Amino acid sequence: MWIPTEHEKYGVVLASFRGTVQHGLPLEIGDTVQILEKCEGWYRGFILKNPNIKGIFPSSYIHLKNAHVKNKGQFETVIPVEDSVITEMTSTLRDWGAMWKQLYVKNEGDLFHRLWHVMNEILDLRRQVLVGHLTHDRMRDVKQHITARLDWGNEQLGLDLVPRREFSMVDPDEISVTELYRLMEHRHRKKETPAPASTHHLFVHVKSLMSANLGEELEVFFHIYDGRENRPLSERFFVKLNKSGLPKSPEKTERQCTLFVDLGSSDLRKDVYIVVHIIRIGRMGAGEKKNLCSVQYRRPFGCAVVSIADLLTADSKDDHLLKVYACNTESEWHQIHENLIKKANSRYNLSGSNTGLAVALQLLHGDIEQLRREYMVLFTRGVSITRKLGFSDVIMPGEMRNDLYITLEKGEFEKGGKSVARNVEITVHVLDIDGQILKSHVAAGAGEPGGDEYHSLVLYHNNSPRWAEQIKLPIPVDMFRGSHVRFEFRHCSTKDKGEKKLFGYSFVPLMQEDGRTLPDGTHELIIHKCEENTSLADCPRYLKLPFSKANLPSNNQTLKGTKESFWITSFLCSTKLTQNGDMLDLLKWRAHPERINDSLSKLKEIDGSEIVKFLQDTLDTLFGILDESSQRYGLKVFDSLVHIINLLQDSKFQHFKPVMDTYIESHFAGALSYRDLIKVLKWYVDRIVDAEHQDHIQQVLKASEYIFKYIIQSRRLFSLATGGQNEEEFRVCIHELFMSIRFFLSQENKSTSPVAQTQAVFLRTFPAVYGELLKIFTVREVAGFVRETLGSLPTAVHADCLEAVKLQCITKTVESQLYINPESRCILLPVVLRVLQAHMQEQKDLVMCARILTSMLSLIKKEENGTAEPVVSEEVELIVESLLGVLLRTILEISNRPQPAGPAMRLQFQDVTGEFVACLLALLRQMSDRHYQQLLQAFSNKDNLRDFLLQIFTVFRILIRPEMFSKDWTVMRLVTNNVIITTVLYLSDALRKNFLNDKFDYKVWDSYFYLSVIFINQPCLQLESFSPSKRKKILEKYGDMRVMMGCEIFSMWQNLGEHKLNFIPAMIGPFLEVTLVPQPDLRNVMIPIFHDMMDWEQRRSGNFKQVEAKLIDKLDSLMSEGKGDETYRELFNSILLKKIERETWRESGISLIATVTRLMERLLDYRDCMKLGEVDGKKIGCTVSLLNFYKTELNKEEMYIRYIHKLYDLHFKAQNYTEASYTLLLYDELLEWSERPLREFLNYPMQSEWQRKEYLHLTIVQNFDRGKCWENGIILCRELADQYESYYDYRNLSKMRMMEASLYDKIMDQQRLEPEFFRVGFYGKKFPFFLRNKEFVCRGHDYERLEAFQQRMLNEFPHAIAMQHVNQPDQTIYQADAQYLQIYAVTPIPESQDVLQRDGVPDNIKSFYKFNHIWRFRYDRPFHKGTKDKENEFKSLWVERTTLTLVQSLPGISRWFEVDKRELVEVSPLENAIEVIENKNLQLRTLITQCQSRQMQNINPLTMCLNGVIDAAVNGGLARYQEAFFVKDYIMNHPEDGDKIGRLRELMFEQAHILEYGLAVHEKFVPQDMRPLHKKLVDQFHLMKSSLGIQEFPAYVRASPVHFTNGSPRTCRNSVPNIISPDGGRGVARRSLPSYPAVNRYSSSSLSSQASNEVSNITGQSESSDEVFNMQPSPSTSSLSSNHSASPNVTSSAPSSARGSPQMAEKHKHSRENACLSPRDRPVSAIFPNPMDPAQRAPLHQIGDATLPRSDPNLSAPDKVRPTPSSWSLDSVKEGAPSFSDSFGKMLCPPVPPRPPYSGSSAKNMRSQSPVSASRSPQKTTVPPFTPSPTECQSTSLVSNSPVLSGSYSSGISSLSRCSVSEASGTELPAGDHPSHPLPPPGTLPNSVSSSSDEPIRRENKTPPPYSVYERNNPRRPVPLPHSLSIPPQADPPALPPKPHQLRTGSMKLDGTSDPRVPRPRPLPRKVSQL
Fold this sequence. Notes:
- The strands form 11 sheets. Strands 1, 2, 3, 4, 5 and 6 form a 6-stranded antiparallel β-sheet that branches. This protein has a 6-stranded antiparallel beta barrel with strand order 34-35-40-39-38-37. A 5-stranded mixed β-sheet has the order 18-21-11-15-22, with no helix packed on it.
- The protein contains 64 helices and 42 strands.
- 42% of the residues are buried.
- Helix 35 runs parallel beside helix 37 and helix 36 (1068-1075) packs across helix 39 (1105-1120).
- By secondary structure, it is an alpha+beta fold.
């Protein structure tokens, strides 16, 4: 049975538990669990980080820990009973753990590793704390380290700042808001600006001296030198180096490392240097040879200096190499460093080129104790301390020091009978009172221990040596008296075995008779002659002699006159000894009573450091004098006491204040002094008003704190001694004193008057007196003193400075112990509030006001849980009454005030704002119901209440601003929000009661709603963005404040009633923003408000258009900011639909909801797409979908335009320049050519509509140019040119015409790549809404084939599955929760057939019309219908042709558009056969043309093609067709196919004719080694002819000129020869097939295996496909294929590409004829247009008997060879312009007759046919029949300008179709009406693009002049335009950008008639975007 646990509440998981048992809870090691119940070794509970999942787990897996339970019961929370630092550490490390891993993922390696180290460090410290073996101090240090690291990590990871007190986290509920703010601010400031250290230390570590000429030991001396005052600042640091230049004692680091301590900030300047002197110890001369002399001397070596300022930049212990300069002249040794500092380096040599002293130098900052903690290693390892000369800037009371520094300055010596000067060495000894040498009391410097003696430098042959050597004598104080220093002078001979010979001595006593020490300064000592060491032993004897020339008696001329002298400088640094006689006189006042007056007077002149040395003695002296003769010396003693007290105010001596405090408490014994002190103090105060000079009085008042301390202590001592006598008298004295003070304070003076300044001085010191008074008086008495004293100040103070001081006084009062007591607080509070209110109303001294308020409110909080609740309540009431209004106004004022410029001022400004805000929050948090009631009742009228509410709502809005608190102050923000929501709940009642119904006030209600909305939308309340642990903490403490505020909004909204209309539509946006917050409860509460709004709007205006418009506008902006989600869309839809079920306006409501929901779908899709990195189709498609939605469904023009520009930017970024142009055109079309002014919008400036449209036109033209869509740019250029012309702006008109011309040039000169088109189906529910279950056609990128495209789509949709078949998917795929992509290539069906079928139009122009403005696309799939004939599969081979029509043409505003309509037709086997042969014919023509025009590098493609066709035909290819369709059975069963059978026969004959011609060309170009193959081909061709039953070509075939152009074959001949009568039968020109983009493409792999597979799929044959193979049409693409991407045309339902598909049978690979195929041969009609619908075909009788069966005019040419503009072509319509080629010899080509332009409909064309044309038969022509053969063509000698021939010859263009005329001809051209076409000069033809199978990149080659074949003089007849190509009436006709050239009437006539041509008008589209 499960029992609730009592004590086992909290535990840590010891081992992981999988939770495999029923109800088991999986646990990970280290998880913390809360236990609810237990049962037989099992616990039931949950993991604290996921409290929603509860389960059971074994108790043995849990380590129990003590915990404190809050809220016992169902909702209990557990707080572990452990150190709060441990708790925080644990939770923080858990949070960091997850974020740390993310750092690795984000590749932030640096922070990752740093955090890892810190986490390990924290774990180590945690272990130390948990073990519990640390001392109290160590524990404190460890906690400090932990919290510092926690704060660092939180800051680095962007987590919240944790408020702490004493290392423990603070609960914001348990302290005042003001205190919380102070803690946060303190931590923030600490983090931002560390206080600069005032004390600095220099660390020096000597490494080595690098020099070439060492060999002697060295001594190195460092000291710090002031270059400005030319004096040393520190004692010397001394290091001994061995002969190698390394430290002599490497194991003793203190001998080589030192710390120059106590440098002040003033010492860190440029002219302070580190000076290094180096002394060598050895022979006298550095170069002397070693001799027997073992005596060594200290000799100069070198000097180095470095500025201390250079170290400020380098904080690390960088090694410095100091340059060492050698001293050339030893006489200058004493000033070598000064000269180096002055840069006089030239006089010194570097002691070696590579000589340098390697030292580490580092500046450390902070006091020495701090350094000991921070650089523990430094101190434990050992470092010597080198002190400053003199005391540091701050003298500490306990500091003990007694150092005498003596500098050996110089000497003057006589020669002593020598011819050369002496080598003088000084030996220094210190001797005590008994004449004994003091051991170890002579130190050369820090670093080395002191010695018994010191030997100076020896300067060579110098009788006036200057040493400037400083030595330190650390003599104990007790040994000073009677001790002296002796200096012995010896001559060092370099000859006499190096003997040092004594010749004199000097001495100096250390203390004078009167107890004063040797005074600081330079002393000239007498040199006493002495040659024996023994004479020095008798100290008492020579001590009687005079030692200094300064104190020689005047009668001793002997010594005065002597030349020999020795100078020293002494400096004493002692905390115990003095050199000041006045000080000694004062201390010994009893010995000389007569000197007391003088001594007291001179005290002020004595140096402060001397006074503090003897502080206690001095004070005892003063009070001793006062006790003995107060009448006589009372005033002087008082003044002296004031001087000493004020001396301690100095920062240098401030640390001696505790010494004085201790003296007062423990040593002061002046029990009677208080009377005198009070009397004198009152005397001074009474004189203030009348005194002229206030300086001294101000000094007295400055010292009033300590004077009161002495008064109170004296009185206490007196009371103790007398049992409290004279108490009343004392009180009276104090009262009188305060009366005097109040009187002088009450004086009104100008700020400049001395009295006002004296008042200020007193107010500054007055608060310090409170504590002293409290020692004797009661709290109330002292509070009374303070109140009366502060109250006596004049109210109208003119002195600003006094006002500030008054505030400072009140600040200190509020912060004093006195104010903390509730008894005194109620007395002082009114005074404080009065002053505060006055200042805040005038906005003065706000910093101080904020500080006072903060302190006051901090105290109130502390009392809240105490017993004095009523007192606190009264205080709150007082403060609210006095300050709430003014506090709100102040916050408003300072928030709206511009921030000051300086950074320091700005910081202060922010602090003030923050402090006032904290005060307001603290005050509001203290207010109870009663306070709110009293506050609201206190307003006399509604206006005041209204102003107050508006004010407080505005302030709350300011508090919510993100910039109000720092980013990481979440704790403070949450407290703020808690206070705001509590206050708003109180104030909403006042709003309801006072401002509803007839008293309704819109402004107040609007402010309320606005505040509520901002409150809910704050980032710090969006709990979803927080970590689970943080979210849990917030919910436990505050709940979800958004829901609380949401419920309040709803409640207040319901109360509004009919006033709701005031907020419609204004509040729709704000409320919508609230509902978008991802909190389900909040959404459920707020969404119904929209129903309410719709209802009220419906009542008011009968519709809710306003609601709809506002909703739509706001949705876009809010969702683009990342708000809202799919859940919201569903919730919005369901809640509102449910709400409006019973409304009368239900239908329109449903419509609105549906619209908004659909918009949300699109906006969500758009937002999701935009999150992706690169621009891809998904982004563009989504933007197009949204743009169209705004235009079509919502009619929101501004949003529409915004999205146009977003789409434009996407296209531009993706370099889709054509699409970008089309997109911008949408905006362009909305504008007119008017002068209407337009506002500034997006990136457009304010300008006229005309200017903006002009700018758009130019931008669009530029983009069309970059996208190579020049034809569209030309139209816009013309439009702009028209505008410029109408304004007579000829300058711009000229530019525009030039631009237009340049675009024409680019059309003709530049290459354009032909894009592929792909059909993409998006199936499944997982696709975005705008793609879901839709199919699109996409325009591929340059060079992009199917496989690349498919890969790109799969990259864009990484979760999509590629479907491996091309069948339409079923419903299961549509409804699947997945993404399916179906992709295959499709073929475009161009609309502009008239351009494509017109003769003479270059390919460069045609290519535009092939691939632009495409609405329809086609895809073919072959299949067998009925029974399949194994012998001849052609009988049942059908093609299923799918035509897709798009919603918009490509290219357009997107690279893909949705399919609008699918049409499915089936092509019969006969029609398929016709297509196959037509396409093969065209391929042959093209190859022959290329071969003739020398565009082929080799002849192999033509060879293979000829071989393939002939071989297949011989082996049964064409025969199969004959068997299938020419047999009687077929003709009988399909009578309707008669025309088609005739057409097929005609094409077969035509193919034979082309082959014959091809063989002739082949013969000419075939290489020698391929001649046998050519012969074989010729033989096989004859076999083929005979198999077809062709002995000789019919007349119409022979006579028909064969045009080999790059268009489709076009023939117009009778199906039987005898139909054309000798008189000329009526011939109707067959309209040729247009050329399609897929036709002219090379596959990337020539003759690959896929070719045979494709064939197999189409023909259904494997082995027997040989004969059929070469008859197949060539597809441009293969479904899902590699490079050239075969479309599913090839594979009926092949699951994958026919190329190399794994599912293909092996037998479907190559057949042997594959080798004969051109590299481009693709055996499927995939890319060919559908055959003409029967309905589209003109019936036979309609055209005439002579009409031949025709294939569909939409059929495309093969996909193999890109045709070139050639003049040798099989297509009369597609003839190229003539040109010459030198390679063909001299050839004369007659001009080409131009094709008449097309106009009118097909019906008109037919009616206008003239019977005259019948007379133009081949037999009647003047030109004899001509068989087209290359040899004949070459040998012909026709005259080019012959009038007869020029009309019939088609400039070298031969045609099989005599009657063929241009599709464009719409007017009848009578016989002979062939206007002459001037022959263009050579090289003017456009370049054609040729390519080979292995060269996918098409290059431009100049087309050589064509091979000319005579054209029969056949009449051309107008041809009707078939229905399939007639432009539907509703569609705008596509425009031809080029202007039609003016056609000149030809001068060559055949029958003498002339019919001038009418130029065809150029149709312009209504809108350019319809291009």
